Amino acid sequence: MSSDLEDLVNGAIAFYQAGNNQRAIEILNEVLYKDPSNAEAHTHLGICFLNLGRDGDALQRLDSALRLDVTQDKAYFHRGRIFVRMGETVKAISDFRQTVRYDPENFEAYYELGICFYSMMRFDLAVKAFLKAARLSPDNAGYYANASLAANEFSMFTGALDLAKKAIKINPLVNYAHYAKGWALMGLGRYQEALPCLEESVRLGYDTVEVRRRRAELYHYFKRYHESIRDYLFILKKDPSNKSPFRIIKDLLPKIGHQDLASYCSLALSGNITAAEAIKQISSELDPMPPPSEVDFNALIDEISKWTSEGEARS
Question: Would you call 103 helix, strand, or coil by DSSP?
């Protein structure tokens, strides 16, 4: 490629990186008018179309780029992204593997491989891909958190716990890292430690059916029945077709003095009322959660002072 055309391509890249895809497209079309076999221009034109949500046009340009030059790593990477959106996971994996073949430092491609493997339930390969991404980009807490989730999936709980802790140390605001940590602790039977992790996950916004299901199980284990019921109601609202939580709620309601509300569960299970109707009735009539126990702050301050002064004396 001549230096003039190279300057034009670099200028186009600067435009689309700044969000001006239309101007970049104009410049790249000018390059291709002068040099139709310019693979790099086809690649970046495909990226512009992808940025604009024009996946069909993007795919056509990326295909052209790879026909002209099989070493275009960016073309493989972005075509892989399109295949992911199309649900063509096997094709996406092939493209991401080609990406790292020609650009071994591309941590984003390893991350995408991890996501693909995870979706195919190849959790062992997902862990390896996420860890490779993490080694190339060690400050990215999300890569460690995703590796932790994948390790949990095949019951490698000790490793999953270490990875989740690493993610939280890097960035404690990565909400699903707290879920991964709580899941790992549950797997290790450390329920007392697991519950605050799941509560933190929800507090930070990672509030999924799976998080609520595990938290509900722990609330049940610790006889915190109000909270357990509320989490199971959350699950039912998200997926009314799955009526199994009604069986659990039916057993829990008498434990908090609400045998009367258990009848709604029976009616929902028998199909006499809809799940939505049962959820509405139970939610509206359920007592507010009991307030937290009163804290004697003066005693607590005295206790803290005692330990602080003893620590200073020892030092």
Answer: coil
**Residues 6+ positions from 175 with CB-CB distance below 8 Å:** 200, 201, 204, 205, 206
Cα(138)–Cα(144) distance, rounded to whole angstroms?
9
Paired tokens of 174: 């990565």
* 213 vs 31, higher pLDDT: 213
What tokens appear for 234 in the block? 């959350």
Q: What are phi and psi of 105, to 5 degrees?
A: -95, 5
- Cβ atoms within 10 Å of 119's Cβ, excluding its own: 14
Mean pLDDT, all residues of the chain: 91
Residue 79 in tokens: 């075509």
Residue found by looking up tokens 């290790």 in the block:
188
Cα of first residue to Cα of last residue in the chain, in angstroms, is: 70
CB contact set of 299 (below 8 Å; sequence gap of 6+): none
The pTM (predicted TM-score) of the whole model is 0.84
Residue % of the chain over a pLDDT of 70: 90
Does 72 have pLDDT greater than 70?
A: yes
Whether 227 and 289 have beta carbons less than 8 Å apart is answered as yes
Q: What phi and psi values does residue 118 have, to the nearest 5 degrees?
A: -60, -45
In Å, how far are 1, 33, 68, 90 from 37, measured between CA atoms? 10, 9, 7, 29
Q: Which residue has the tokens 């094709």?
A: 91
